[in-house]
Amino acid sequence: MELDSLYQEVILEHYKRPQNKGLLPNQTVQVHHVNTSCGDEITLNLKMINGTIAEISWDGVGCSISQASTSVVSELLKGKDSAAALAIIDTFQAMLQSKGSDLGDESVLEDGVAFAGVAKFPARVKCALLGWMATKDAISQSLALTSNVKKEQR
Ligand code: ZN
User: Fold this and answer.
1) Which residues are 34's β-sheet partners?
2) Which terminal residue of the chain, N or C, has fewer Cβ atoms less than 10 Å from its own Cβ?
């Protein structure tokens, strides 16, 4: 597969020096997602404080795209509230599912735009989305926890 060489560099850099890799304790939610078509696996710890993402830490094995992409999302969404984080994840997902027509907005996705070219390779789209879908799942679960706590307090 051929990606723009600058983008390739960004992906390789995240693969070689992944951000937030290594699970941190005291998470709000832990999720484990697997991409069976490639053999990628991610365990992700999400820590929410007052509706804001305080930490995303993760561990995993798999191809460079899956690992680099998880590194990008773990850094990008730190400090965002859950609604903003979910909107950014949707933007990334739309880019990946555009078959290459949506090149992504760098002001929103930052290093995430490096994966725009992956959209042209359907077999690899799941690799790029793995960490992002894991994060989305973790945010949804943390929101469900919060609403359950509120119900119990009534
Ligand atoms: Zn993969």
Assistant:
1) 41
2) C
